[in-house]
Amino acid sequence: MRKIVLMAMLAGGVVMNGMAQSKGSLGKNDPKAKTILDNVSKKFSSLKSVVANFILKVEGANNSVTESKKGTVYLKGNKYKVNLDGQEIISDNKTSWTYAKDANEVTINNVDQSSSSLSPAKLFTNFYDKDYLYRLNGETTEKGKVLQNIEMTPTDKSKNVFKVIVSIDKKNQNISKMKVFEKNGNHYTYEITSFTPNGNVSDATFSFDPKKYPGVEVVDLR
């Protein structure tokens, strides 16, 4: 499984603060969608931490589910940790670690602060930055929830991702689901199954301790 960029996802570079702006000749963002996204960002920014369980579904060009996995994401500010069936992705916003259980190998990188890719932290906060145009694409009802669906398209048409649909729980103003569409026909759907705010998440969660992984091979690319 490729490294998660939750959203392309869950979604992992982070951080472009500030509200999205109009794109001039490329078009303008939908003010209704902006209001919804601003409310989600404001709510999340007020939380000390978040633990969210999710299901990742990978679909091929014919919409058949080729893979489905359960995972958990831990968030604290711009730090995150993702556990997903044999893989851990950890970032303290300076260093990132990607651990593959089957190979007992961890790859270490510096976090690219200028990156515009969509990370787990960015998924819940600043996922609507200057790199996207967005519009409200109606409401749907799923599993008893009214979802406000926002379609996002990258301004850079060279990107492999050509569309992202973010579904917001209208009542709770939380991300409920996110679907990423790639030009090769693949779709990645991240569905949040539980959302726990302000849990006891220690800073140690967001670093990799090789002592806890006997015999681990370290590949340091910094």
Protein architecture, described:
It is a single chain. With 222 residues, the protein is mainly beta. The chain has a domain at 31-75 and 119-209: Lipoprotein localisation LolA/LolB/LppX (outer membrane lipoprotein receptor (LolB), chain A), CATH 2.50.20. Helix content is 9%, strand content 45%. The protein is built from 2 helices and 12 strands, in the order αββββββαββββββ. The protein has helices spanning 31-45, 120-124; strands at residues 50-59, 65-76, 79-84, 87-91, 95-100, 105-110, 132-142, 145-154, 161-169, 174-182, 187-197, 217-220. Strands 7-8-9-10-11-1-2-3-4-5-6-12 form a 12-stranded mixed beta sheet. Strand 8 and strand 9 (161-169) form a beta hairpin. 32% of the residues are buried.
Overview in brief:
It is built from 2 helices and 12 strands; from the N terminus they run αββββββαββββββ.
Can you give keywords for this protein?
222 residues, mainly beta, outer membrane lipoprotein receptor (LolB), chain A, twelve-stranded mixed sheet, globular, disordered N terminus
Q: Structural class of the secondary elements?
A: mainly beta
- The CATH topology of the domain at 31-75 and 119-209 is what? outer membrane lipoprotein receptor (LolB), chain A
Query: Which outline best applies?
Result: globular
Radius of gyration: 17 Å
Beta-strand portion reads 35-45%
From N to C, what is the helix and strand string?
Answer: HEEEEEEHEEEEEE
Distance between the termini: 22 Å
Low-confidence stretches: 1-26
Largest sheet: 12 strands, mixed
Strand order of the largest sheet: 7-8-9-10-11-1-2-3-4-5-6-12
Number of strands: 12
> What is the averaged pLDDT score?
81
If helices are DSSP runs of H or I spanning 4 or more residues, what is the number of helices?
2
Question: What's the CATH superfamily of the domain at 31-75 and 119-209, by name?
Answer: Lipoprotein localisation LolA/LolB/LppX
Q: Share of helix among residues?
A: under 10%
CATH class of the domain at 31-75 and 119-209: Mainly Beta
Q: Report the CATH architecture of the domain at 31-75 and 119-209.
A: Clam
Keywords: Lipoprotein, Signal
InterPro entries: LolA/LolB/LppX, OM_lipoprot_carrier_LolA-like
Pfam families: LolA (PF03548)
Signal peptide: 1-20
